[in-house]
Design the sequence.
């Protein structure tokens, strides 16, 4: 499944998290743009430290106003670190995924806003043990939506790949888990071989997961 790649992403309203993560990355990097994944044994060690279910909240900013007036919103979710390469976020809110769809696609926006909350699947790969840091690449969320007299395959795509700000950190002393992810596109009826599908968003949206 095709997912978005990003060279550099400015996190809207979550820059403080990105700066904290970037600082830690640069401590280990030779040039700030490369890093080394943990060995398989270390990957399993990191996973075992955070395995299982975590109650938490997803936070995001209202992207329809300037940052000086931006409103922080949130929703309760449950996160499951299922294995050393997969994290699930249950009850992920669908409405904010649709809120930044361009006004000319109002029928699409309304149809997506009406969908129930969903499960977001994230591919993970660990690159630091103390504290634990890991790459977090969400898979596309796919909906079959009927609007405008037809049924459409609608994909919500997220930024993926390193070096980016799409990753998580676990503080073992505080038992605190955080993950930053970014919605980057909404595609409609994308063809399998299409390399530059129309992005129906007018801006990207960043999300922060924090365990309770």
Sequence:
């Amino acid at each position: 499944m095709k997912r978005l790649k990003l060279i550099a992403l400015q996190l809207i309203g979550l820059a403080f998290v990105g700066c904290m993560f970037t600082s830690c990355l640069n401590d280990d990097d030779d040039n700030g743009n490369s890093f080394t994944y943990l060995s398989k044994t270390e990957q399993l060690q990191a996973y075992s430290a955070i395995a299982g279910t975590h109650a938490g909240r997803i936070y995001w900013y209202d992207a329809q106003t300037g940052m000086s007036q931006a409103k922080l919103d949130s929703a309760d979710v449950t996160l499951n670190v299922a294995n050393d390469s997969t994290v699930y976020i249950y009850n992920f809110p669908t409405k904010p995924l649709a809120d930044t769809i361009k006004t000319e696609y109002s029928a699409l926006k309304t149809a997506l806003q009406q969908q129930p909350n969903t499960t977001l699947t994230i591919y993970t790969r660990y690159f630091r043990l103390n504290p634990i840091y890991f790459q977090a690449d969400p898979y596309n969320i796919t909906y079959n939506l009927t609007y405008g007299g037809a049924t459409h395959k609608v994909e919500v795509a997220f930024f993926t790949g390193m070096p980016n700000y799409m990753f998580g950190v676990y503080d073992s002393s505080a038992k605190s888990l955080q993950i930053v992810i970014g919605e980057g596109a909404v595609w409609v009826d994308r063809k399998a071989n299409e390399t530059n599908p129309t992005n129906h968003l007018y801006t990207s949206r960043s999300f922060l997961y924090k365990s309770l």
User: Anything to note?
Assistant: Residues 4-33 have pLDDT under 50 and may be disordered. Residues 15-28 form the longest helix (14 residues). Helices lie at 15-28, 40-50, 95-98, 106-113.
